Amino acid sequence: MKTKVLFFVSTLESGGPTNVIYNIIKYLDRTLVEPMILTLSPEPARSRKGDFEALGVTVYQFDQSRISWIISGGRTLKQYIAKIEPHIIHSHSLRPDVFAAKHLKGHIRISTLHANLKDNYINTYSRPIGDYFAYTQIKHVNHLEKVVACSKSVYEVYKDKVDSIDFIPNGVDTAIFRPLSPGAITQRRSELNLPSNKKIFISVGSLCTRKDPHTLIKGFLNSEQADNSVLLLLGTGALEEELRNTYTSENIIFKGYIRDVVNYFEVSDFFLSASWSEGLPNTVIEALACGLPVCLSEIAAHHEILSINTDAGTTFRCGDHEGLSKSINALMKKEYSSLRKAAVNIIEQELSAKKMSASYQKLYLSMYNQ
């Protein structure tokens, strides 16, 4: 009999956690595991629901407002779960974790922590709301049978706060994210209206304080490479208008939200991140899988990635745009083919979607059999 795993989420909005779930499901052995998805709220415009359905996954939707959930969510959830009859419930994010802990006792329940929750929530909601959300989520996941951190660095944050915690590093789908041949790069740059005679630096993510785009842009502009390079910024966020008005150099290109970021990774030369906090950033490992050397801020998640192969990039202190400039300059002096080889090696060794999915599948089967 197959082990039925229900992935329990708020929505399937495109982003890091949803991408992780997609990669887990894509590489599960369907002769052993039957995945399903349950969402709590109506899908946003940037939903990956269709991508999951294309994998043959049934997506159950409540489509209820948060107020409705407060009034009758627990009772409704129990009734719904009784009809689906999953063997394992794998929750992701605050509301699913809370509902799983409070209303789904008697089931095998697993949660994945996708980030340092306190940093994430404070950046989004500020204090004291961010502190409260982080405290609430950790309090409730302690009632679940298993908690999985998305990286060793996140595990280290919570190992003394969560009883049954382990870690499975995020992984990237190498069937999609992979290096492009030089000839194909030239053609793709032309299709994307990008310069063929300049180095392309790329950064992907929300334009928010936690990602620190000001340091990113200043560091790039002050580097020795700025005149002969462009910086692509993919993403939107609270700082977007301010950034567009502040940095008007023709070498800074704001692309806004891009669904298929792989097209831009494939034609770029280097990846930059000035983030102050990450779980195990999908954008970094996607860039590495495409063969991009990286220049990263000195946070635990970035050190964790580069510790697999230190030849894949350089680092700089958070918030230090001068340090970023020096780090870019140092990166450019290294032999590029060796950098690309080291970047891909990190993914092949430790951070592929296949390896991540196999680890989760082993956990599902082990817990169900027990």
UniProtKB/TrEMBL annotation:
<dbReference type="InterPro" id="IPR001296">
    <property type="entry name" value="Glyco_trans_1"/>
</dbReference>
<dbReference type="InterPro" id="IPR028098">
    <property type="entry name" value="Glyco_trans_4-like_N"/>
</dbReference>
<dbReference type="GO" id="GO:0016757">
    <property type="term" value="F:glycosyltransferase activity"/>
</dbReference>
<feature type="domain" description="Glycosyltransferase subfamily 4-like N-terminal">
    <location>
        <begin position="15"/>
        <end position="175"/>
    </location>
</feature>
<dbReference type="Pfam" id="PF00534">
    <property type="entry name" value="Glycos_transf_1"/>
</dbReference>
<keyword id="KW-0328">Glycosyltransferase</keyword>
<protein>
    <submittedName>
        <fullName>Glycosyltransferase family 4 protein</fullName>
        <ecNumber>2.4.-.-</ecNumber>
    </submittedName>
</protein>
<dbReference type="Pfam" id="PF13439">
    <property type="entry name" value="Glyco_transf_4"/>
</dbReference>
<feature type="domain" description="Glycosyl transferase family 1">
    <location>
        <begin position="187"/>
        <end position="342"/>
    </location>
</feature>
<dbReference type="InterPro" id="IPR050194">
    <property type="entry name" value="Glycosyltransferase_grp1"/>
</dbReference>
<keyword id="KW-0808">Transferase</keyword>
